[in-house]
User: What shape does this take?
Amino acid sequence: MLTVTEAAAEAITALTAEQGAGSEQSGLRFALQSMEGDGAQLALSVAPAPEDGDRIVGADGGAKVFLEPQAAALLDDKVLDVQQDDTGDVAFAVLPQQQSA
Assistant: This one.
């Protein structure tokens, strides 16, 4: 299942509040946009609530991530984090989960 880092959770909370969707039901939604060869394009949006069939990842009363079923399958073994670029802008990053030895 997709893991959400604490930094990503804080960014999601800030983003949903900034977008005016800061209710307890709102969250960040991943949906499959297209499949191309070995890669997939995912659409990312702030959603006021999950859609039918979405898998919900997140803590009670905290940041939520909604995963459209095909996106959930693609992100099942990934970690959602945030990274800061040289200009200070923050972007979400999907990374492989670290395998414990």
Notes: The longest strand covers residues 27-36. Residues 54 and 69 are 6 Å apart (CA to CA). The first helix runs from residue 6 to 18. The two ends are 19 Å apart (CA to CA).
